[in-house]
Amino acid sequence: MTTLRWIALGYMVALLVAASLNYVPGLTDSEGRAFGIFALDIFDDLLHLVSAAWAGIAAWLSHRAARTFLIYFGALYLADGVLGLVTGSGYLDLGIIQYGVQDLPFGFKILANLPHIGLGGFALASGLLLDKDKQ
Fold first, then answer.
1. Rounded to 10 degrees, what is the CA torsion of 79, 84, 89, 95?
2. Mind listing the pLDDT tens digit of every residue in the chain (135 residues)?
3. Mind giving me the DSSP string for 55-77?
4. Domains in the chain: how many in total?
5. pLDDT value of residue 121
6. Rounded distance between C-alpha atoms, residue 103 and residue 135, angstroms
7. From the CB of residue 77, how many other CB atoms can be counted at a distance below 10 Å?
8. 127: buried, middle or exposed (CB in 10 Å: 19+, 13-18, 0-12)?
9. In a domain, 98, yes or no
10. What are the residues facing 34 on neighbouring strands?
11. Measured between alpha carbons, how far is 102 from 104 in angstroms, rounded to an integer?
12. Are 4 and 60 in contact (CB under 8 A)?
């Protein structure tokens, strides 16, 4: 199994964990915010579950499928995080349509969008730069 396939498999696990955050006692506050920062709704959970399935299938299929997943997933999630940083709402969970531009403190925007920026950026960089061990 190649490095990119292992990375895609890691994304599957991370995304399954993200999808489960609302259902683990003690991880959400009284307002339903995970870690007191962001509220995840059914759209977020479905997004994370579909992304996890995509990552798992790509890792199982081939190096090329894993690389394709990492590049597209990375670009989509990174762009969503940047949009959330600028507007307070992302597009992958339809937040920009539901809530529009939100006037939120910049520090909050950073904390709320850092997961998508970090995951997206790492996936995109991995897919573009770590293509040495093809199978």
1. 40
2. 999 999 999 999 999 998 887 777 776 667 666 666 666 677 888 999 999 999 999 999 999 999 999 999 999 999 999 999 999 888 988 888 888 999 988 988 998 899 999 999 999 999 999 976 554
3. HHHHHHH-HHHHHHHHHHHHHHH
4. 1
5. 98
6. 48
7. 26
8. buried
9. yes
10. 28, 38
11. 6
12. no
| Position 134 in a domain | no
CA angle in degrees (0–180, nearest 5) for 18-6-16: 15
Q: Can you tell me the distance from the alpha carbon of 61 to that of 6, in angstroms, rounded to the nearest whole number?
A: 12
Q: How far apart are CA 103 and CA 108, in angstroms?
A: 10
Identify residue 101 by its one-letter amino acid code: V
State the DSSP code for 130: -
CB 100 within 8 A of CB 89: yes
Q: Which residues pair with 33 in a beta bridge?
A: 39
Q: Which domain holds residue 92?
A: 3-129
- Any domain includes 107: yes
